[in-house]
């Protein structure tokens, strides 16, 4: 979010400084290990309608945003495949019924398509021998998160954003310089103190910020030729397999209420690897490139929020947080709302999409970023 907003604001003529506690490689960011699936219908089974609407808004915006970058970013929109084993058929039926209900209630969501063995083999030949039925969710997509981070890094240089790497700061430190019209806080869990309800300046309805641990495995699997993100209905949690370029696959599923950033557990590794082998035997000869963990910044209702405040010198402070497991899926929508708030003092897009905006600024009209 920070890199995207910095680029967008600089292209609009603003002078932008970016402060980051880690380096340009984004090694400490959850964005680096994410699968970056853009799947509003699939996620509708476990999230709120406003997040789904943000995901729908963001899909065409991703195409536009990527097309405007100097460096290429892998992006595809070939849908999502849902698979299950015979013993999990009842769970799969409940999942399918839930998605059908959600798509029927939202005209912007394509209806899920039930697949028999023949249609499954035609759609995804590499799994047609192991599965006799499945579910296809049209129009869903994905991108390569690391290519995007690198492309945004290059763009920051091209649009003359002043990047201060390895420089953690608090918003209040920047106000002393008296040079910024806006300070935008996209620090994720680094902003935890700003979201805690233990300050007299915070309202009782403010939402404490926490981390939710996720674990992923990156594989090189040249014997596996999946064409699109594939999810496996699993007794404990739905496992996803996201294919990237050059036979790279990102595998994950775990969601643990913990801020533990230690290495992946044996239990998680065994469950993920054994599950994907049942999807395609070619994973047996895959090479494990990386096992990674990170914590997603999450507000107590698991929904994103923008919070507007005043700094002491009268400049605007915007806090953006709580993107949780949907960061890539909804970030263009959140960015569009943030830009409207900066330009106009309000956001019709946020209202339409149901993005929570808490405005505690005591100025009249917009504070233009320039």
SSE order and pairing:
Elements: H1 2-11, E1 17-19, E2 37-38, H2 40-43, H3 49-67, E3 75-76, E4 80-83, H4 89-105, E5 113-116, H5 117-123, E6 133-137, E7 141-143, H6 145-158, E8 162-164, H7 171-175, E9 182-185, E10 209-220, E11 230-232, E12 239-243, E13 248-252, H8 266-279, E14 287-299, E15 305-310, E16 316-321, H9 327-344, H10 348-353, E17 356-359
Parallel strand pairs: 1-8, 4-11, 9-16, 15-17
Antiparallel strand pairs: 2-7, 3-7, 4-6, 5-6, 10-13, 10-14, 11-12, 12-13, 15-16
Helix pairs in contact: 1-6, 3-9
What are the key terms here?
single chain; 370 residues; alpha+beta; D-Amino Acid Oxidase, Chain A, domain 2; 2 domains; 8-stranded mixed sheet; 4-stranded mixed sheet; 10 helices; 17 strands; 31% helix; globular
Give a written overview of the molecule.
The protein has 370 residues and is α+β, with helices and mostly antiparallel strands. It has two domains: 2-26 and 163-210 and 301-359, no CATH class; 30-145 and 212-299, D-Amino Acid Oxidase, subunit A, domain 2 (D-Amino Acid Oxidase, Chain A, domain 2, 2-Layer Sandwich). It is built from ten helices and 17 strands. It has helices at 2-11, 40-43, 49-67, 89-105, 117-123, 145-158, 171-175, 266-279, 327-344, 348-353; strands at 17-19, 37-38, 75-76, 80-83, 113-116, 133-137, 141-143, 162-164, 182-185, 209-220, 230-232, 239-243, 248-252, 287-299, 305-310, 316-321, 356-359. It has an eight-stranded mixed β-sheet with strand order 5-6-4-11-12-13-10-14. A four-stranded mixed β-sheet has the order 9-16-15-17. It has a three-stranded antiparallel β-sheet with strand order 2-7-3. A hairpin with a 4-residue loop joins strand 12 and strand 13. Helix 3 (49-67) packs across helix 9. The chain starts with a helix and ends in an 11-residue tail after the last strand.
């Amino acid at each position: 979010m920070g890199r995207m907003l910095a680029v967008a604001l600089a292209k609009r003529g603003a002078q932008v400084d970016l402060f980051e506690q880690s380096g340009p490689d984004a090694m400490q960011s959850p964005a680096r290990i994410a699968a970056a699936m853009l799947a509003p219908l699939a996620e509708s089974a476990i999230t709120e309608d406003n997040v789904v609407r943000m995901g729908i808004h963001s899909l065409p915006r991703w195409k536009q945003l990527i097309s405007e970058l100097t460096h290429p970013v892998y992006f595809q929109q070939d849908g999502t495949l849902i698979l299950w084993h015979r013993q999990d058929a009842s769970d799969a039926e409940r999942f399918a019924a839930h998605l059908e209900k959600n798509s029927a209630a939202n005209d912007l969501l394509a209806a899920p398509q039930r697949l028999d063995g023949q249609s499954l083999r035609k759609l995804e030949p590499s799994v047609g021998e192991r599965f006799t039925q499945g579910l296809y969710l049209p129009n869903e997509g994905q991108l390569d998160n690391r290519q995007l981070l690198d492309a945004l890094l290059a763009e920051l240089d091209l649009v003359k954003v002043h990047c201060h790497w390895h420089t953690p700061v608090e918003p209040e430190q920047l106000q002393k310089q008296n040079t910024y019209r806006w300070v935008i806080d996209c620090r994720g869990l680094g902003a935890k103190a700003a979201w805690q309800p233990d300050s007299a300046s915070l309202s009782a309805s403010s939402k404490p910020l926490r981390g939710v641990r996720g674990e992923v495995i990156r594989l090189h699997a040249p014997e596996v030729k999946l064409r699109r993100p594939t999810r496996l209905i699993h007794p404990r949690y739905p496992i996803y397999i996201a294919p990237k370029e050059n036979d790279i696959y990102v595998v994950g599923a775990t969601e643990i209420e913990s801020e533990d950033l230690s290495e992946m557990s044996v239990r998680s590794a065994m469950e993920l690897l054994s599950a994907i082998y049942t999807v395609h035997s070619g994973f047996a000869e895959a090479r494990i490139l990386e096992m990674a963990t990170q914590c997603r910044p999450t507000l107590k209702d698991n929904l994103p929020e923008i919070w507007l405040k005043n700094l002491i010198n009268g400049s605007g402070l915007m806090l953006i947080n709580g993107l949780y497991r949907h960061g890539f899926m909804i970030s263009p929508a959140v960015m569009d709302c943030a830009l409207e708030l900066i330009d106009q003092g309000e956001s019709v897009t946020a209202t339409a999409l149901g993005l929570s905006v808490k405005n505690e600024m005591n100025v009249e009209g917009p504070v233009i970023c320039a």
